[in-house]
């Protein structure tokens, strides 16, 4: 193996299914260098975590020798498909980005809903919301990073190309691609190379074709629900999330593609299912380290 990865390894703290500070300790224990944290509700909600509490959390993370790779600002539901709900969601997204910058990261990952194939009222609502977020993020030297999976990479790129700045970019998740759209992550990296600012390291298998709207929700379908997605990826009827190296993501080629495009950001481990998250995450850290 000639490739030598120099990217830092991150872990989604919430994957441990523990309170934030306990999860941070676990991330350190398993050998991660950075962490991604959900900042949508509970103790990390920007309206809950205020003032000195932010400084204290930042200092605590630094005291562990960790840094924040990104916050997760995924507000679920229909993403930005519903024009009536967008003003509140855009506002909350901005507050999550403010929190991210204060905690020392310039990336907030999110799902925006499935980008429709045709230019429609839904497409325009999403475009308008993303344009506003894109300009806001750019003004702070930061990014809202859309997670790959709901649509194929080429279509996502054509949507991003319509925005005036790269403030809305990409959080690349290869497993979502192989599980939901059957897209090729290696080709996806090359297509989206100008937009990738963060990645998730996850593996999966697809057993049958599925309408992405059944997974990620859309207007006229049930709204996106992380619990429902976790159930789908663990049941293994349509697709299944599996430990790294056991699925359809060709990591040799995938990591090589990230290197080829000059990606220097985090490889952040996400484990949404399984009964032993800590064990799986520990193995995932070791898996990535073999490429160093």
Automatic annotation (TrEMBL):
<dbReference type="GO" id="GO:0016853">
    <property type="term" value="F:isomerase activity"/>
</dbReference>
<dbReference type="InterPro" id="IPR013022">
    <property type="entry name" value="Xyl_isomerase-like_TIM-brl"/>
</dbReference>
<dbReference type="InterPro" id="IPR050312">
    <property type="entry name" value="IolE/XylAMocC-like"/>
</dbReference>
<feature type="domain" description="Xylose isomerase-like TIM barrel">
    <location>
        <begin position="26"/>
        <end position="290"/>
    </location>
</feature>
<protein>
    <submittedName>
        <fullName>Sugar phosphate isomerase/epimerase</fullName>
    </submittedName>
</protein>
<dbReference type="InterPro" id="IPR036237">
    <property type="entry name" value="Xyl_isomerase-like_sf"/>
</dbReference>
<keyword id="KW-0413">Isomerase</keyword>
<dbReference type="Pfam" id="PF01261">
    <property type="entry name" value="AP_endonuc_2"/>
</dbReference>
